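2024-03-11 09:14:02 INFO worker-7 job=invfold-0412 stage=load source=structure_tokens
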């Protein structure tokens, strides 16, 4: 099972080796986990749909993806991956740090493309389908990197970097202007709120606590959160806690009572009721079928 590790909204898991921060993960939804909650990180991420159908949300924009689709997520963008209706999906996560392609002393590639992308001064189109003009190049790069990573032959690092440079060259024509400042400000507030939730979900969190994070009144905060996330803050918090509970049910042998408490539910019957409503079974049944 390939479950990404999070300390908060910002993903902190190290990808690849320290001197070559590149890795590929094969994942399945809902077989491995029901969803990957909204998060962000400073790495570049490419999501390559291998089979099935799912939904990926990037900076609050939902995208229904199908077999063959490619999603490019630059550093700093909020994104989540989830099951779409009753469909299953297999996908690859290609995650790497942009600095592995950047010259220490700076060069044209670094200054004109990679540094602005890392600093979110420019953005890239996120969704590429098989009928996109650059799709043959993108998919060939990803397939070639797959094959390279099957053997890790001597000098594979050079081959991976070569494919990444080719991939980015194909993306140049899909650079777009960054979001207006007011939209960026809203996303920054959401990052702060989600970070707070994911750092403190095991503790008691009130709407007042969350509202204080972005300096809003409680009523303004509830409206702001619902408008941007399409769910109430309470529903989001419960869903996040339930997601963390499913991971503990699969990865640990802790009792249901302890798992409920560890994920912020101080009432076992309430936890069981919410869990069954979301997943269609009890926590015990979920654990037994995983």
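2024-03-11 09:14:09 INFO worker-7 stage=emit residues=290
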């Amino acid at each position: 099972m390939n479950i990404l590790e999070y300390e908060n909204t910002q993903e902190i898991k190290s990808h690849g080796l320290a001197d070559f921060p590149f890795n590929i993960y094969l994942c399945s939804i809902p077989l491995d986990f029901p969803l990957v909650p909204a998060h962000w990180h400073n790495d570049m991420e490419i999501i390559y749909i291998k089979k099935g159908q799912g939904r990926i949300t990037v900076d609050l924009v939902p995208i229904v993806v199908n077999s063959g689709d490619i999603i490019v997520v630059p550093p700093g963008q909020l994104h989540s991956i989830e099951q779409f209706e009753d469909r299953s999906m297999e996908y690859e996560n290609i995650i790497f740090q942009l600095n592995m392609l950047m010259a220490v002393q700076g060069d044209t590639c670094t200054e004109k493309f990679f540094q602005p992308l890392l600093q979110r001064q420019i953005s890239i189109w996120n969704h590429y389908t098989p009928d996109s003009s650059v799709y043959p190049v993108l998919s060939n790069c990803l397939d070639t990197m797959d094959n390279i990573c099957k053997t890790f032959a001597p000098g594979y690092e050079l081959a991976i970097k070569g494919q990444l440079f080719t991939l980015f060259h194909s993306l140049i024509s899909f650079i777009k202007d960054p979001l207006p400042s007011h939209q960026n400000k809203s996303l920054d507030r959401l990052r702060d709120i989600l970070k707070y939730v994911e750092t403190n979900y095991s503790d008691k969190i009130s709407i007042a606590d969350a509202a204080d994070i972005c300096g809003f009144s409680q009523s303004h905060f509830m409206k702001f959160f619902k408008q941007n996330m399409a769910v109430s803050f309470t529903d989001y918090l419960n869903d996040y806690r339930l997601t963390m509970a499913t991971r503990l049910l699969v990865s640990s042998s802790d009792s249901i009572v302890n798992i409920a408490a560890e994920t912020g539910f101080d009432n076992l019957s309430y936890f069981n009721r919410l869990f069954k409503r979301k997943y269609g079974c009890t926590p015990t049944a979920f654990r037994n079928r995983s």
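2024-03-11 09:14:09 INFO worker-7 stage=report msg="The CA atoms of residues 138 and 167 lie 6 Å apart."
2024-03-11 09:14:10 INFO worker-7 job finished
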